Amino acid sequence: MTDAPGNSPYSLRLSGVTKAFGSIPVIQDVDLDIRAGERHAVIGPNGAGKSTLFNLISGLFPLSGGDIRLHGRSIAGLSPHRINRLGLARSFQISNIFHRMSVFENLRIGVLARHGIRFGLFRPVDRMRRINDETDAILARVGLTARAHDLAGDLTYSEQRALEIGMTLTTGADVILLDEPTAGMSREETARAIDLIRTVSEGKTLLMVEHDMSVVFSLCDRVSVLVYGNILATDTPAAISANRAVQEAYLGEEADI
């Protein structure tokens, strides 16, 4: 039975999701339910298909088979822009910001887009108090108020990742996808990133790809293990850690975390 749009207890439901590039299968008949309000991680070895799965959910890649539903509504075949408008936003494994614009301007672009406002000679953006106030609020949430007028390209790597998370917030989406948000960070930067992600995902649904198991165990309610394009197991972090099949396929010594 299919959930009616807007009435689903799941923010995301993947049913028989398949993706092949030519004759090469990458994602194979994946079923996955992401409950509304939960923080869920997808883990797996390199080449397991994690980023491909994210690209299917966010509309960057078309499905080869199956269906994806957002709040009970099928989003299969929709463009990334339309999916975003329906309440899903994502960050990328490689930082995706406007380096030659200020931090404030990077965020304000997203706020303007959400309100359907475009730049123009007869639209004095700096006087749009509501837009600027919303932008300031997001700056504060991601801890970048002091860097508001600096070029985004001058931020540290961890600050750029924080900015990208802020850009997902500008859309007002209630489902957030983060692709390896702490990759390349020091232990101290990772700790700050965990606190930031926990704060900004409060009351939202979070789906993340992450290699750092300490991040997964600190943040997530449930974990799915993707191996060779298949979901091997979905359970709590503790249960996943104790799962012998998961240990053999992926976690190895990390299973003791």
UniProtKB/TrEMBL annotation:
It holds the Pfam family BCA_ABC_TP_C. GO terms for molecular function: ATP binding; ATP hydrolysis activity. SMART domains: AAA (SM00382). Coiled coil: none annotated. The keyword Transport applies. It comes from the Bacteria. InterPro entries: AAA+_ATPase (IPR003593), ABC_AA/LPS_Transport (IPR051120), ABC_transporter-like_ATP-bd (IPR003439), BCA_ABC_TP_C (IPR032823), P-loop_NTPase (IPR027417). Residues 12-253 form the ABC transporter domain. The keyword ATP-binding applies. This is ABC transporter ATP-binding protein.
